[in-house]
Amino acid sequence: MKEQDLTIHNPTGLHARPAKVFVNTAKQYKSDIRVQHGSKKANAKSLISMLTLGVECGSEIRLIVDGADEEEALAALVTAVADGLGEDHHAPEETAVPSTAPANGQQAVPSPTAVLPANVIKGIPAAPGIAIGPIYHLQHEEITIDETFRGASVEEEALQKALDRARGQLVTLHKQMVQSTSASEAAIFEVHQEILEDPDLLDAVLERIHKQQSAARAWQVTIDARAKAMAALNDPLLAGRAADIQDVGYRVLRLLMGGDEQQVSLPDHPIILVAADLSPSDTASLDRGKILGFCTAAGGPTAHSAIIARALSLPAVVSAGTAVLDIANLTPVILNGSDGTLTINPDAAAVAQAQAQQQSWQAAMSRAAATAGEPAITQDDHRVEVVANIGGLKDAQKAATAGAEGVGLLRTEFLFLERTEAPTELEQFEVYRDVVQALNGQPVIVRTLDIGGDKPLPYISVPPEANPFLGERGIRLCLNRPELLRQQLRAILRAAAFGPLRIMFPMVADLSEWRAARAMVAEIQAELGAPDVEVGIMIEVPSAALMADVFAQEVDFFSIGTNDLTQYTLAMDRMHPSLAGKSDGLHPAVLRLIARTVEAAHAHGKWVGVCGELGADPQAVPILVGLGVDELSVSVPSIPSVKAQIRGLTLTAAQTTAQEALACGTAVQVREMMPTAVS
Q1: pTM for the complete prediction?
Q2: Exposed (0-12), middle (13-18) or buried (19+): which is 403, by Cβ within 10 Å?
Q3: Looking at the domain 120-140+264-366, which fold is it?
Q4: Is the separation of the CB atoms in 360 and 679 below 8 Å?
Q5: pLDDT over 50 (residue 526)
Q6: How much of the chain is helix, strand and coil, in % rounded to 5?
Q7: What is the DSSP letter of 495?
């Protein structure tokens, strides 16, 4: 038997998707694998059991592995946890609660001291936008459980048929979601498929069947118990996964009792849906022709239903309390998903104001989408390039149709993770070539492997580090393993023959690191007869920002990684549960480093991009433009709105705003000086 203690560093702990990766890794081995967290133990091959452990970011777990392949199993799970369990250390942009700002960058944020009128219910904003119309309460069809026991073999067969049909429905739903939103949101239904195959869940159901319960009753009782245990967890994100278990449970139960796909009876006119809560299946199946938005009594902004609502551009308010369930059907309301309010029986003035806000919002979004292909030029003729952060070929294809003027950051880690050996030069070359061709002649910046002690690879030996974020990572790791870097550079330079590729080195802190990496590029170019390419560095270490005037004499460009630059400048782990809110890229210290970098680059005729999350923050965009940043690299869905926001600015006003921000003392002061009212 082997045991090992590990710390979970995923920002939201072992929530559904990282837990799924953990479970699927464990399932590859024959050994019995248990996970202990505090006084709780779970079967590592059971997704539900793993979720009910309630493992949060920073929590320690103990792996207990016993069996013929215990050493291999333990090593694989240790590596999977170190690799982030399928999650980047950068928070996933598409699944984060988005800004509620319209395209002009003015954000709808209610005053915390405002006294709400008696007819206004306050919830939590879950998806931005405004909807006006009558409410309609969602009522699920009641399922009458047949408790007749027909024999164990008959009940087991009925259960298996229902599970198979449910699996087929989820596969179809997953495909539909990929087409209408993205693979990120669609992954919710991969988790649902995993629940269907959960060994502990199925064993418990079969045990009840063998005690002469009908398949339907055995399934219902078992699902309810699992969902209740999940809902009781202290972590609200993990507790919210109880809705996923109930969603899967209801789907199978309906099939067991002879039903099919859930049919929700709705009026033949547009309505605002109200419910105690919505399951992911409910939300994904909503008829966008009839549903204007939804409000739930429970739920949270990180629930899967909220994630899907944002992906579908459906205004939503969650956690509004049980009072919303007492509102009579067809009562007129105003749903404001931007500030989290539901106004009941609004008067004519309130309706007129909401209609104006709605029209302004919709017009801004429509203009942004319609003009996504146009350049981002301020009203006084200053151009800022808006490009995409991507993580693979599918993202590149989406960026090409979303108005991206290129790729400011191609993360190459996806090629190296979840493998037992490094990708070959040919494998890398083919991906880089396909990405650059997908952008139809637009430039693509390829960041070399950015990995290290906090996220090691199984085929690279890295000694344990007490503080991996300050250890061997990024360019440090690659220079210490030159063959790894050489192979990647050869693949990039070979692909440069198919389009304008640029190379960017991460985590450069010292001039000697830059020179060593640049020399390797020159050497390989000569070997291959490859075309000249621009080569730059990321500014994400304060020493590089402070030495920007020296670096600018040699590099072709800078790209500021505001996520890490903020973390290292403020000495705050941006994933720390109690510090994440304070780790703000609009802190004046970070802004001063950005300003210093831009000034140094421009003095030597070089350009500067920003590829961190700050680039898509509506309150940050005017400041970054005013500081002279030449390029903003953002997630693909953010491209149209960022471009539209820039077109609404003037450079002179942005420069004034930037100087005022630099003079502030805190990030809070910077944000307070930025517009917060609906335009």
Answers
A1: 0.58
A2: buried
A3: Glucose Oxidase; domain 1 (3.50.30)
A4: yes
A5: yes
A6: 45, 15, 40
A7: H
**Continuous H helices in 416-561:** 425-438, 475-480, 482-495, 511-528, 542-546, 548-551
User: What share of the chain in percent tops pLDDT 70?
Assistant: 84
Q: Which long-range contacts (CB under 8 A, 24 or more apart) does 347-355 make?
A: 351/132, 354/130, 354/132, 355/132
CATH architecture of the domain with range 2-91: 2-Layer Sandwich (3.30)
CATH for 371-673? Answer: 3.20.20.60
With tokens 């047949």, the residue in question is 146
Least confident span in 224-238, 314-328, 553-567: 224-238
Structure tokens at 610: 């920003």
The values of phi and psi at residue 553, to 5°, are: -75, -15
Residue whose pair of structure tokens reads 């067809």 in the numeric block: 330
At 278, list the tokens.
Answer: 């919505």
CA separation for the pair 615, 621 (Å, rounded): 6
Q: Which range has the worst mean pLDDT, 66-80, 238-252, 296-310, 645-659?
A: 296-310
Contact 383, 607 (CB under 8 A): no
Structure tokens at 670: 């910077």
| Nearest alpha-carbon partner for 44 in 57, 31, 54 | 31
Q: Where are the beta strands (DSSP E) in 191-288?
A: 271-275
Strands 60-66 and 316-318: unpaired
Which token pair is 643? 């471009």
Average pLDDT for 515-524? 97
| Residue entry with tokens 């399922």 | 143
**Four-CA torsion 359, 361, 364, 365, nearest 10 degrees:** -110
- Say if CB 491 and CB 505 are below 8 A apart: no
Which of 396, 441, 387 is closest to 414 using CA atoms? 396
Whole-angstrom Cα distance, residue 257 to residue 201?
19
Mean pLDDT, rounded, for 234-262: 75
What residues act catalytically? 304, 611
Compute the mean pLDDT over every residue in the chain, rounded to the nearest whole number.
Answer: 84
Rounded to an integer, what distance in angstroms lies between the CA atom of residue 200 and that of residue 219? Answer: 12
Task: Give the three-class secondary structure for 526.
Answer: helix
Please give the CATH topology (third level) of the domain spanning 152-256. Enzyme I; Chain A, domain 2 (1.10.274)
The span from the CA of 1 to the CA of 641, in Å, is 55
Contacts of 159-163 spanning 24+ positions with Cβ under 8 A:
159/205, 159/206, 159/209, 159/215, 159/218, 159/219, 159/256, 161/255, 162/215, 162/219, 162/252, 162/255, 162/256, 163/196, 163/252
Instruction: Give me the sheet containing 124-127, strands edge to edge.
Output: 120-122, 341-344, 332-336, 130-137, 271-275, 291-296, 316-318, 124-127
- Number of helices (H), then strands (E), in the chain: 25, 21
Q: What is the dihedral of CA 360, 363, 368, 369, to 10 degrees?
A: 140
Gap between the Cα atoms of 380 and 383, Å rounded: 9
Q: Are 60 and 6 in contact (CB under 8 A)?
A: yes
Taking only the tens place, the pLDDT of each residue in 441-475 is 999 999 999 876 445 566 776 666 666 678 778 89
Going from N- to C-terminal start, the domains of the chain cover 2-91, 120-140+264-366, 152-256, 371-673
